[in-house]
Backbone:
């Protein structure tokens, strides 16, 4: 054997290589360590996701509140330009004796073009309110209302129905001729307004009971309930005993943004679970949504107490 071919290793070299190998092995993560890291990430995600979702919901509610403020500012400008008259607000949002409604169109779960026709909101040929909203259709839409009926409205290019908002039926004029288009209340609802019939303020100065600061004007309506541009609430149900003819929206964590005739808008949290009807894509407008309440509902009481009534 050639002595030069013999491999010799000094003890110090063997130790260095052993240490290097040991260093390379201990630098890697073990399976247990990886599982611990994954578990920590999962726990953090579980903690953070509800917080992030709540923040998103608050942002959507703030957007919705701003929409109501903009609508109320538009209403104030309308009143100022029209000799104290409030925006015309007839039943079924129909043109009456040449007077245009504040908006036109009837929402439904059908494929009717009313659900997507922006002209009914921003074109002055259809809406008496259009000239006061700077042709901004999004202020009529709740950012949390993305409901489309499966098989009817999905898959045909609609991002959402164009309107979520409704106006208090007791605010703004209607047809004065009973039984004629635009007359308030609809014949099926006449029994809810007793004994003196339904009051509505055609002019701002008629908002006396309650006054402008307590009279609600604009709110979003439940997607199943919304149809024309008005939402009926009988002030005769001020104790909470009665019926919901049409339902307010609960899309912001059981809250809604509501504006008032004096110009302010606020969040309102609904307290009774019966108020928050789950959307099931069934048209429940008009008399079909009469929800009998065997016990008083504080949300119905609040809306009724903030609905204009006879002085």
Residues:
């Amino acid at each position: 054997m050639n002595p030069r071919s013999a491999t010799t290793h000094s003890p110090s070299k063997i130790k260095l290589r052993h240490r290097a190998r040991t260093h390379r092995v201990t630098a890697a993560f073990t399976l247990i360590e990886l599982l611990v890291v994954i578990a920590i990430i999962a726990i953090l995600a579980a903690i953070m996701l509800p917080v992030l979702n709540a923040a998103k919901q608050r942002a959507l509610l703030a957007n919705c509140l701003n929409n109501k403020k903009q609508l109320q500012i538009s209403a104030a400008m309308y009143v100022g330009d029209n000799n104290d008259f409030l925006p015309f607000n007839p039943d079924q949002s129909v043109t009456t004796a040449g007077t245009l409604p504040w908006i036109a169109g009837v929402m439904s779960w059908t494929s009717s073009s009313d659900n997507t026709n922006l002209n009914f909101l921003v074109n002055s040929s259809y809406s008496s309110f259009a000239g006061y909203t700077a042709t901004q259709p999004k202020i009529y839409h709740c950012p949390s209302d993305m409901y489309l009926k499966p098989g009817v409205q999905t898959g045909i290019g609609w991002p959402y129905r164009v309107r979520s908002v409704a106006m208090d039926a007791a605010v703004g004029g209607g047809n004065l001729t009973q039984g004629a288009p635009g007359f308030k209340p609809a014949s099926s609802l006449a029994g809810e307004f007793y004994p003196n019939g339904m009051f509505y303020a055609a002019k701002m100065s008629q908002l006396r009971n309650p006054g402008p600061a307590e009279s609600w004007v604009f709110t979003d309506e439940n997607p199943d309930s919304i149809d024309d541009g008005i939402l009926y609430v009988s002030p005769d149900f001020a104790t909470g005993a009665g019926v919901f003819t049409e339902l307010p929206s609960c899309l912001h964590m059981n809250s809604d943004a509501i504006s008032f005739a004096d110009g302010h808008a606020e969040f309102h949290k609904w307290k009774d679970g019966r108020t928050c009807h789950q959307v099931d894509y069934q048209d429940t407008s008009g008399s079909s949504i009469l929800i009998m309440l065997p016990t008083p509902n504080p949300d119905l009481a609040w809306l009724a107490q903030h609905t204009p009534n006879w002085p």
